[in-house]
Amino acid sequence: MPKADEVELLEAISENFHTYLRKGVRFDRVIGSAHPELDIDDIEALLRIHFVLTDSRGDPGNVGVIDFMETLEDRIRRMKTTTTRESTELRGEIRGHIDWQQTTKRRARSGRLEEPIFVCNQPEENYDIDENLVLKRLLGVIYEIVFEDLEPVIENPSEYEWIDTWTKADADGARHDTESALSLLRRIYERNIYLQQIDVDDVELTHRTIESVKQSRSEFYREAADLLDQFRQLMNQQLDSEEARSILDNTIISPEKTEVLFELYWIFRILQAYENVEYQVLSDWSESPSTIATWESDDARFVLSHDSTGEGLAFNETPDGETIEQDGYLYRMNAVLDQYQDLSQPLLGRNAQNSLWGGQPDIVLEKYSSDETGERKLDQVFVGEVKYSRDMDYIATGLRELLEYMAFVRSESGDYVEETEDVLNSVSVKGLLFVDSLNQETSSTGDIDILQYGEKVRKVL
Fold this sequence. Notes:
Blueprint: H1 6-23, H2 28-32, H3 43-52, H4 65-70, H5 72-75, E1 82-91, E2 97-98, H6 100-110, E3 117-126, H7 130-149, H8 151-155, H9 164-167, H10 181-191, H11 193-196, H12 207-213, H13 219-235, H14 241-250, H15 257-272, E4 291-297, E5 300-306, E6 316-317, H16 329-348, E7 357-358, E8 363-370, E9 376-387, H17 392-408, E10 429-435, E11 448-452
Parallel strand pairs: 9-10, 10-11
Antiparallel strand pairs: 1-3, 2-3, 4-5, 5-8, 6-7, 8-9
Helix pairs in contact: 1-14, 1-15, 3-7, 3-13, 7-10, 7-13, 12-13
């Protein structure tokens, strides 16, 4: 069986991706790790970038932002307006049509019928109509994403092939003078005299207004309303599995992309094992940036983290000088670490830790309950190590890492989670090694198993 490739993984997780987004599951850490230069720290930032990269995908009835930009130059010249007549009093000059009735009345009030006073009706075009408000709001959203969210990309576009549709000139000549969509957007949004007359800052565009503009006779405005509605749906994380796949396929651009997708695949499989779960959205990403999901079941609280040490755990070992014998491995290693700390700052200009061992598992699931006083109590921990590989030597390193995580994990109190008599017996700490499809079966020990790609994951805690 060939190794699970990117296309296969996308197919396997896209349905789950949009399902769990709707349930409130967070993928900030997964996504953020794939885009370090863009400072993407939440799903909203990813969805915003995805929005400006959308196109018709071969379906003429499914217009995206890229398609909209290609025809913007020609269509914006035909912006819809309403005309009103403004009555203006002029002296010695005439503008527009003279309102003789009002002119006569004005002269009569002044007592000088021969005085050159004219009341004129001048037509005035009004651009602040619903169609143009929707258009201006849409272009404002696109402008903000392109020139603020994507600023690092447009400053160095050669590093990001996926931004070519914005930064490269139009080879087909569909846009004015073969300029790039980026240049076109800046020119029109900043300089178009008609757009400048439209003020949407203090305007609340309701869903009803957008739906009304969707019924416009003009295809231009219908598309603008559709796109603005799509954007709002994305910000509410309402998307179907096809769009979820498009997001994963086109927006997460990273050399580690497939490895991240493989980890995401196993995270989904773990979540699927828990039925009828109400997932909770965390209010502040900065408080727990690696937390994927939290939920409650049977009076227990679960916390699932990715590429993290978890919410209330520690995966770190330092030597305890009081318990070290006067010679032997630990005594000499302690001396090495002490000297390492002393020399690192003067020789290397950096601080060092006296850590014998430390790590950060790929997947951590914590299960908490409350004691008699209402205080949180850690019941169990699950550790998952993911190796996107079929190489047995590499998988062997993953097995050792998993065993170390299970043996050395500590709770907030500093105590080992697993009691001495139960070390690696999967009582309080359980673990699985997740790997790609192998050309051989893996036997089960009953306590610690290796799961291959495609195999079912049961409840891990």
